[in-house]
Specification:
Blueprint (H helix, E strand, L loop, with lengths): L1 H24 L10 H12 L3 H14 L4 H13 L3 H13 L5 H17 L3 H14 L4 H13 L3 H14 L5 H17 L3 H14 L4 H13 L3 H14 L8 H10 L3 H14 L3 H15 L1 H14 L3 H14 L4 H16 L4 E3 L5 E2 L15 E3 L10
Bound molecules: zinc ion.
Length: 390
């Protein structure tokens, strides 16, 4: 019973509205087939958890009085919110089947029914209904967004693009970035099928939608690298410096691979140092330390790292410092190893990525947030963003 109490509030409001409205219409309408008592009867059934009987009463009212339609829409959506989807569907199907509804009301009922189907997991029916709604009203944003979500779920990227463009036509704030992500998904599909020409075409379209699409730059770099076009790959990766530096940490390993394939080992350190001046980040500091150690030895790596940490402290940097130092001085190994292990344990469970939209955190990069389903909102976390817990 308790979980029905919250239902009272909107229903009480609806009944108040209904009774007031009938009173107002008392003189205007001579033929009143529905009495408020029938409404109360339906309400009682509902409160006594006899939902099916309640629906029968409401549906009967519907046959005689079009003005309670809004209330039916509200009751139907309440059923859906409570998880009683079949009942919601019954109410909304009855509404839709009723002849003589105005186009607006019918569209509203169809949309509610589409939401019921979606909740029930009946994606095909949801899609059909939304297409029917859009057919008569192609700027119905709610139906367009439901369709977009379905196509994303089903990975129907061309259809998602089509719907995305319709949404864009209605709301300019729906940026091309999302459509660019759909083209990136198509590029990934083509790449998986070894159709690199198609993958490149899709990436061109992604850039046309959003010249700042970091994911497209990374994918293009990956394709060129796999095709052994290392100079082109480096150029593609370096696009990120201007367009989307927040994703730079995703490409350090790949860009080093390309430099090595080009036999440009001597250019790596100057390049990374220049990059560090423009886009400082602990990930890059660690990469540069590793390269310095490989190319010039532990001493050079320690000099660089300790100098950088003095200006910009970092737990991961300190951990790396201990590791380097332990390789250098045997006498300090016991403590530096212990300190390093403690630090590593502290760092172990720290998330590496966070969604700027919903705060979702994780250790793997996602282009589509698993929590809020927004595109391109997840970035690598800088250590200072972890907060005061460490
Ligand atoms: Zn999110």
């Amino acid at each position: 019973m308790l979980n029905l109490l919250w239902l009272l509030l909107p229903l009480a409001a609806a009944s108040g509205w209904y009774l007031a409205r009938r009173e107002y219409r008392q003189n205007a309408v001579a033929d009143q087939k529905i009495s408020p008592s029938e409404y109360v009867k339906g309400l009682n059934f509902l409160l006594n958890e006899q939902s099916d009987k309640a629906i029968d009463v409401f549906v009967k009212m519907l046959e005689t009085d079009e003005e309670v339609i809004e209330m039916h829409l509200a009751v139907g959506s309440l059923f859906r919110q409570r998880g009683e989807v079949e009942r919601a569907i019954r109410i909304h199907q009855n509404l839709v089947a009723r002849p003589g509804l105005s186009e607006g009301v019918r569209g509203q009922a169809l949309l509610e029914l589409a939401r019921d189907y979606l909740r029930a997991g009946l994606l095909d029916r949801t899609e059909d209904l939304c297409l029917e709604i859009i057919d008569s009203n192609d700027d119905n944003l709610s139906a367009l967004h439901i369709l977009k979500d379905i196509y994303e779920q089903e990975k129907e990227w061309f259809r998602a693009i089509e719907v995305g463009r319709k949404i864009q036509a209605v709301t300019p704030e729906f940026k091309g970035g999302v459509i660019a992500q759909y083209f990136c998904e198509l590029a990934v599909d083509a790449k998986d099928q070894k159709d690199l020409a198609q993958a490149r075409r899709m990436l061109e379209k992604a850039f046309a939608e959003d010249p700042f699409c970091g994911r497209a730059a990374i994918l293009l770099g990956d394709i060129e690298k796999e095709s052994e076009n290392y100079a082109a790959a480096i150029a593609a990766y370096r696009r990120l410096e201007e367009s989307a530096p927040q994703y730079l940490s995703e490409i350090y390993a790949s860009i080093l691979e390309c430099y090595e394939a080009m036999h440009w080992q001597k250019r790596i350190v100057p390049y990374l140092k220049g990059l560090l001046d423009r886009h400082h980040g602990i990930e890059l500091v660690l990469v540069l330390s590793r390269v310095l150690k490989e190319q010039k030895g532990v001493e050079a790596a320690l000099d660089f790292l300790s100098g950088d940490l003095a200006g910009k402290p970092s737990l991961r940097g300190i951990s790396c410092l201990f590791e380097l130092e332990s390789q250098q001085t045997r006498r300090k190994r016991k403590f530096s190893t212990l300190a390093q292990q403690s630090l590593d344990r502290l760092l172990e469970n720290k998330p590496t990525y966070r969604c700027a939209n919903c705060g979702f955190t994780g250790v793997v990069m996602h282009w589509n947030c698993p929590s809020c389903k927004q595109w391109g909102t997840i970035n690598a976390i800088q250590e200072f963003q972890w907060g005061a817990s460490i």
